[in-house]
Design goal:
five-stranded parallel β-sheet, binds nicotinamide-adenine-dinucleotide, 14 strands, seven-stranded mixed β-sheet, 25 helices
Length: about 550
């Protein structure tokens, strides 16, 4: 077969630049022949395993987490199969790099570490033609969009268009943790400006240099985006991520009945907290309906968790009033109580009859909660005094410090275990290393939404659900809690190990599909029995393995 040069658009060499199809040094001899790749690669044919080994060596050689992030993003740009093989097989090591905490640093530095664009930017300048911008995306069968407007990136505040790191990272987790196909994932940043002066003054900032759209023009912009998504990608799940809470709650209410959407900060977090509580209750010996929660923060994560926990407590037999009475919140102005006149709408349903308390420690003494949950975005708010006070009240106090990234965590694992004499049942939003106290080793669980949203997303995509509903998140939470083994709990962990996450996601997806079917929200025809359903879901999961391209003909390979 003689070789001649094809056009750039369909030549074999283009495969080397297409991260979805590129295999690099793993193109077989037959593929190199057929695709016009002879001479364009070193002659040795490598396996995916060889490539993984090389990528790991290179990644581990990098000076620090941010450099590792840059390395891994470049790998994803070159060869997605290899990138996902590395991530899937080493999730414990890779997740803190591609997601929290490193992704937070990456977003802060986005303009400075920028190499190639990823995802789709829809800016305020695109008003009136957002559907055309969506049509520029090269893939047509998009099934999951993660969108941010960059206003509340992790606990780091307004990062404008630098927020793109978050949808990119979340979608990498959809692929790695639940096997959504990379081709079906679309990260989107709505650039409506930023109010952060350092970014506006930074010559390397890549977003619009204007203050944020607000009010009616912001709403009209988001409306146009959501409508355009329905038109261009009608089968997609739309996940809102890292919007400031003054928009997050509103937008969720506005769209949840209209389109297939959810807000991960509100609903995904809620499910992981609910799962954590059920699982922690198995350690402390208290059922969900016996818990009394005091949450630091009353924003998206906090109130979202409260709402789902209340609905789960009601499922377990409490009345609405009883369930709400077990959930207390403490925001930047103190305990959320009825006499306050400064409460946003989403907090009012938890404004109980109680004297105002301005000090969190005093609130613990007054309310004697079984669990404290940190979702304030404020570092080190769970002090020694607080953890010790809770440990005096309960033999096994539950302490969740969910704020991300690590620098914002309300307390560290070492502090929670140390100050409670190893009695705290602890989970955090960002990962902490195992801790040894009095010779006993504790493996802190990561109360990370990555246990929930990928599996929920897989269930939605596999069933073609029209809407996302709270029962799906409750089912996801109960499924996740059921996946925690006695062995996990003995080491102090109330979540399953990350190494099991694909299996856990598949089970969550099946639970979600069953709810979708029960509610009649499916658009796919689904098998009837559970075993077949489980097979149906698992068969849809993307595996990072190379498929043979030897049969593919390109101009360059034609004789
Ligand atoms: P948010 O802005 O909606 O809420 C923050 C809340 O904290 C507000 O109610 C605010 O009043 C309160 N707050 C601020 N300062 C406080 C103080 N000094 N004392 C008491 N309360 C204070 O943000 P959010 O979406 O709820 O996120 C909060 C944090 O939770 C972030 O750090 C985020 O990264 C983290 N989070 C973690 C997970 C997870 O890992 N599972 C999921 C979602 C959010």
């Amino acid at each position: 077969m003689s070789m001649h040069r094809g056009s750039e658009s369909d030549s074999g060499v283009q495969l080397l630049h297409d991260p979805l199809r590129n295999k690099g040094t793993a193109f077989s001899a037959a593929e190199r022949e057929a695709l016009g790749l002879r001479g364009l690669l070193p002659p040795g044919v490598q396996t995916l395993e060889n490539q993984v080994q090389r990528a790991l060596e290179n990644c581990r050689k990098q000076a620090g987490p941010l450099e590792k992030y840059i390395y891994l993003m470049a790998l994803e740009d070159r060869n997605q199969t290899l990138f996902y093989r590395v991530v899937v097989d080493h999730l414990d090591e890779m997740m803190p790099i591609i997601y929290t905490p490193t992704v937070g640093r990456a977003c802060q530095e986005y303009g400075h570490i920028f190499r190639r664009p990823r995802g789709l930017y829809v800016s305020a300048e695109d008003r009136g033609r957002i559907r055309d911008v969506l049509r520029n995306w090269p893939q047509q069968d998009v099934r999951v969009i993660v969108v941010t407007d960059g206003e509340r990136i992790l606990g780091l505040g307004d990062l404008g268009s630098n927020g793109m790191g978050i949808p990119v990272g979340k979608l990498a987790l959809y692929v790695a943790c639940a096997g959504i196909h990379p081709r079906q994932c679309l990260p989107v940043t709505l650039d409506v400006g930023t109010n952060r002066d350092e970014l506006l003054a930074d010559p390397l900032y890549l977003g619009l240099r204007q203050r944020r759209l607000t009010g009616a023009s912001y709403d009209a912009f988001v409306d146009e985006f959501v409508d355009a998504v329905q038109e261009v990608f009608p089968r997609t799940l739309l996940q809102f991520e890292d919007f400031a809470n003054h928009n997050a709650f509103r937008l969720l209410e506005r769209y949840r009945e209209r389109v297939c959407t959810f807000n991960d900060d509100i609903q995904g977090t809620a499910a992981v907290v609910l799962a954590g509580l059920i699982s922690a209750g198995r350690v402390t010996g208290a059922g969900l309906t016996e818990q009394r929660l005091l949450t630091l923060g009353a924003g998206e994560a906090a109130i979202g968790s409260g709402d789902l926990i209340v609905s789960a407590m009601m499922e377990d037999g409490l009345s609405l009033e009883e369930a709400r009475g077990r959930c207390w919140f403490f925001d930047s102005r103190g305990l959320v109580v009825r006499s306050r006149d400064d409460l946003a709408a989403h907090k009012q349903r938890y404004a109980h009859d109680h004297a105002p308390i301005g000090d969190f420690l005093a609130a613990i003494e007054a309310l004697r909660p079984t669990a404290i949950i940190g979702a304030s975005g404020q570092a080190r708010m769970f002090t020694r005094e607080i953890v010790q006070a809770l440990s005096r009240i309960h033999d096994r106090p539950i302490v969740f410090s969910l704020s991300n990234p690590t620098s914002k965590s309300e307390c560290t694992a070492e502090q929670a275990y140390g100050w409670s004499d190893g009695r705290a049942v602890f989970a955090s939003g960002s990962p902490f290393d195992p801790v040894t106290i009095h010779g006993k080793r504790f493996v802190p669980g990561q109360g990370n939404n990555a246990y929930i949203f990928p599996g929920v997303g897989l269930g939605i995509v596999a069933s073609g659900a029209r809407h996302v509903t709270d029962p799906m998140f409750r089912a996801a939470a109960r499924t996740l809690a059921a996946e925690v083994s006695d062995e996990d709990r003995e080491t102090g962990s109330i979540f399953p190990p990350l190494s099991r996450i694909r299996d856990v996601s598949a089970r969550i997806a099946v639970a979600v599909v069953e709810i979708v079917r029960r509610m009649g929200l499916h658009r796919e025809s689904l098998p009837d029995d559970r075993e077949a359903l489980e097979r149906y879901v698992r068969e849809r999961m993307y595996q990072p393995v190379y498929e043979s391209l030897a049969g593919v003909r390109t101009t360059a390979g034609r004789a």
